Structures are given as structure tokens and as C-alpha cells.
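Late entry, glutamine complex.
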Amino acid sequence: MSTSFGQSTVLGYPRIGANRELKKAVEAYWAGALDAAGLEAVAAGLRAEVWRTLRDARLDAIPSNTFSYYDHVLDTAVAVGAIPQRFARLGLGALDTYFAMARGVDAEPALELTKWFDTNYHYLVPEINADTAFAANPAKALREYAEARELGITTRPVLVGPATFLLLAKGDDPFARLDDLVETYAAILTALAEAGVPWVQLDEPAYVADRTPAEVDGLRHAYRRLGELPNRPRIFVASYFGDLADALPALLDTPVEAIGVDLVAGPENLNRLAAAGPLRGKTIVAGLVDGRNIWRTDLRAAVTTGVTVTGLADLVSVSTSCSLLHVPVDLAAETRLDPQLSERLAFARQKVDEVVLLGRALRDGTTTLTAPLPSAPPSWRRDDIRGRLAALRPGDRQRGDYADRADRQQQRLGLPELPTTTIGSFPQTPALRTARAAHRAGTLDDAGYTARMRAEVEHVIRLQEELGLDVLVHGEPERNDMVQYFGEQLDGFAATDHGWVQSYGSRCVRPPVIYGDVARKTPMTVTWSTYAQSLTDKPVKGMLTGPVTILAWSFVRDDQPLADTADQVALALRDECRDLEAAGIRVIQVDEPALRETLPLRRTHQPAYLDWAVGAFRLATSGVADDTQIHTHLCYSEFGEVITAIDALDADVTSIEASRSKMEILDDLAAIGYQRGVGPGVWDIHSPRVPPHDEVVEALRRAVAAVPARRLWVNPDCGLKTRTYPEVEASLRHLVAAAAEVRRA
Ligand code: GLN
Ligand code: ZN
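Prediction complete; structure with ligand written out below:
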């Protein structure tokens, strides 16, 4: 068996299947329509297909154990025995215990779900405490290795590394358990070696974020210990999503045989390698093909970088910058894309070819690779938009004085103290989804569709009036997704048919592609909002998705700075805000739930990001008159470094998630002198539970103690699209009654 790493590899591959087979099988299992054996058969088929695909593409080094029924961090938790007691004691079989941790059961809520670094993937947060009893359970990794061997394919099992695993965990000082956990990894590596596994990949992406010296020391110690095991596979420590900084010399100072660096998101890694001195004996796995975006690689530039790495290390292998988990499976499935666009794209399958090509070029010393990428068609360029952006002045991102705005808005809106509102969407019932699908399929014509959606809007307006809410919404029945809806209407965006990417568990998303200059063709939301407003005297809130969120949940062109693309989107939204205002809409909400999640992982990169992100939001929202009220909505309560940016958005009202954190956010806002309106969520809409009246009163009392009543709004944590009407009616009734009670006090 070869001990060399190989010339080309990928750090991981999509596991959902080309047609989301895994989603369908897992959901069928949950619904009782497929048994465990049936589910396992689908999974084994998908794994085999991936390995064969990679082998047939002539990829040298093929990963395994990248398959997951739900999440790879959860798989690692199971592999190290970190199953919290509350799940272990349910007495379920292994598979059902796994799904109980992922999804919760009646008696036990699931593990917390959170963002995987700055991507749109979500992982389950391990719960690690002083009493977590780690125990090696290499069964899954061994089984997958053996399955691939049956096909004649030798693979490299992948696990989340011990240091990153603990840094991602929550509990009472998880990192303090590193020494114990490393012994468990030692047992796993020994078991893999006994099964003949030549290489293992341990992912340590946590080290591309700011880390303390103690955490870097922990990494060094962990890999020294694993490196000195008498019987182990060769170790490849992979990093991705950015600059390894101090962690690179720390890893070089251990016996591990290979280290992976992301040279796309972390170009700094090249200098770090150069500064590290001669890299004898270590394989550097150079992440040259972007694993997170869908553009074809500029192979000439990638070869140049690769040649630089070859000059620094004797052993170099080419890989993707991160797992291909973050891109769709195969461009070949997209038969309806504009050929001028598709010739510029590469999905997972195409990226494997790029890696193989680059690996060969570096081995053979070929530096003349293919023609350069064709330049973008002139029709993708919009000189009118570019002209408008070039002519912008700082004043175009600035509204009038807030106190004055607030007075004018209040005169126009005449709202009571503690006004009540919702975040935008109302339940997306199966009937609504069916109607949208029928319209897409052409079996429901435009007139029928519009009538159906208008009926829904009317229903939502009547319900809100009956409940006694103060600022109403139209309910967003016409929106499949808050980004896709706008992407479908803007120039410069394309939609794919099969471009699905796993978001979490069985949930997949199909991000639009922003390929050219963005321009608004026609108003996008005005007819819905004005129809809703025509049904009531109460103000109806217009509802838009902000520029940062539109970028965050799309695949964005990489030929110009994100800031420029964000401003183009902002300009389209600015025009939309003006049209809404001209049509009589007095309140407009611009959602930015992604503002924090796209925050760069390293603090040094954050100010520049926040600067353009805030600037784009302000460009979108500052074109309206001072008596038009701008709201924004953010889906989280831990603001950390973004709190001053939230203030800088200069929205008149900000609604935020707060019910789980018991309104703590209000103190944080007070601490920075936040002066404008705020709506801390008083109902946790992520749970089917209806909050009792007294609980809402209690939350509001706490809020009134922290924020003057005239600046406080009463609303749920987020949109209601995932809830049912009975839950929504009961909960909103409590919310309105609680507001009235606290008002009276
Ligand atoms: N307006 C959107 C809704 O209510 C906001 C969703 C979100 O913040 N994620 O559905
Ligand atoms: Zn939200």
C-alpha cells in the first residue's frame, strides 16, 4: 500500500446525492415509510457512487467517512462517545439515538444547531462537560473504509479533529478535556491502523479563527501525542476557510505527515508557509480550487500558486480549499442555464476534474494549462447602474436626524405605546405550497395564482385586524424563500434547477447565482404590499430582504469586490423602497438576518466587512422620506462584535431574537447607547409551544425596565412561516393581550 499522499484530493464531497436521495430516504425513515435497512441501503449506494465518481475522475487520494445521515460533527460526537446522558438514557438503538440528538424527541430537545463557521451549513453543537465519558467508537469510519475496499478503492477516513471538536462544543470548559479526548482519538487511530488504513484526515478549521496561545498549544500537544503513537495511520491535518496564522508553525512542529491550507480564502497561508522555512518531509496539501463557490478555477493562476508552494515544500498535493459539501453536485444536470453562464461554472463534479488537472500539471511541470477563462459577455455589464453608483455621495447613505424622524413618523402613524407587529411571514400551509408549485408547473395560470395569493393576503390581514395588531404584514405567501424570491426578479441573477446544497440535516437550499451587474427590472413587491394596504386602515409593513443577506445566501460573482455587488443590490432595493413609499406604504422592513453570520472569522478582517455591509444597508434604506419608518430584523441575540454595526444601520426600529436569552440583549444595546426603536422577540417561534400570557407579560416587564416604553415594540422572535395557524393565533392573542396589560400598568 502506498504511503505517499497522492497528487490530488478533495477534502470532502456532497453526500446528499445528485437528486437529494438522502433527504428523501431520511425523511421517509422519520415518517415510518422506510425501515432502517432500507435507509442504510440508500446510504451505502450513495457512498459507493461518490467513491466510484472520484476514482473514475482519476483523483489520487479519496476521502471516506464524509457521508453523514445528518451532520459530520454529530458523527464525530458519536465516534468519541460524547452522547449526552439525556439521550443515552432514552434507551433507543444507535440510529434512533443519533436522530434524537439531531432532532429532539418529545421528552428531550435536540442538540443546539448553529452555523458552521461563516458558511450556510449548520452543525449540531456537542455538549461536553467534566463528566462526559469519552469512548472510542470507530465503527462508522471502519465500515465506510471496508465498503470502499470492497469496491477496490482505498480511502482516507475523515474526522473532525479533537481540538476543533472541543472548540465547537458547549458546556463547562470543553477545551479542558483535550488530553482525555486525544486519548480517545489515539484509540480510534490505532483501530484504523489495525484495519490497514494508510491515511486519516483530521479537520481543524477552528484554527483559522482567532485563537488564544493556550488553544494553539493545545493543538500542538494533541498532534505530538497522536504523532508518537506506535501504530497509527499517517496523519493529514486539514484546515480551511482562512488563514492558519500561528497554528501553522505549531502543526509543523509535530510529527503529522501532511498539513492542508486553504489558499483561496486564506491567501496569507502562502506567506506563512514561506516564513516557516524548509518544509522537509511534510506534505503540503494546497487548497487551490474554491470549495465554496461555483465558478470555474482560473487554472493558470492556480498553477502559479501551486508552483510557489512546490518551491517551499518537497511534497505537495492539490486539493479543494474545503469540503465540496458547500457546492451543488453536478453542473451537467443544469440543462437550462445560459451557455455563456454555464461555461464559467464548476460544481463539485467539475471541481474534481480541476483538482486532478492541477495535480498533474504540478507533477509534470506543465505550466501552460488551457485557455484563460472567457471574459464576461458585455450584456452582463450595466453601465447605467455603474454610473449611478459612481455618482453616489456620502449623503446618499444618510437619513435625517433620528429624533426628528421619530416625531414625523409618529405623527403619521399614530401608534400606541408598545406597538405590536410580526416579522413578516405567516404560516406557509401545504395548500399554499401546492398552489405555488402548480403555478411553477404551469397547471395554475397567472390569474388563478394571483387570486389564490390575494385570498391568502386578505385572510392574513383580517386575522391581524381581529387579533388587534398595530402594524400589519401581508404574510409573504408568494415567497418561496426570502432570497430566491428577489433573485428570480433581478437582472444579474440566475436560478439553477438542481443546484441543491445541504443546509442542515435533510434541509437543502438552492442558492441563486449572482453572475453580472444587478438591476431591478420592475417593482418586485409593490403590488402585494399595496393590495394588503388597500384592505385595511392600519399601516401595512413593506417587506424586503437586505443586500447583505441576499449576498450571503447566493453564490456571488468573484470578479469584483463583494462591496460593489452589495451596493448594486442595495440600489435595486433603494428603488423598491421609494416605489413602496410612493404607493402609500408607510413602514418598510429590510431583513438582515445574515449580517452576523458572514462576519469574517478573524477580527482583523471584520471592520472592512462591517463597513461595506452597513454602507449597503444604508444605501438601500436612506432614499425614503424621514416620515417613512424603516425597520430591520435580525435573527439572533448574541451580537458580540456586530452591535455597533447594528446601531450604525440607523434603522428606526430593529426587531431581534430575545426570548431564549431572556431579553439580555437590551442591556447590551443600552450599554452602547442605542437610542432608536427596538422589538425584542417575546415568543420563541422556533418551537411549537404557545407562550402563556403571563410569560409574555413577564418578558415585556423585563423589557420595559431596560428600554423606555415609547421605544419598545412587541413582536415574535422571527417570521411565522414554519408555524401552524392554531399556534400563531393563540400566541399572537397572548402577545397582544400582554402588550395591552403592560401598557395599562
Ligand atoms: N420577513 C421574514 C419572515 O418573516 C424574515 C425571516 C428571517 O428573518 N429569516 O419570514
Ligand atoms: Zn428572523
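The chain has a mean pLDDT of 95. Will revisit in the morning.
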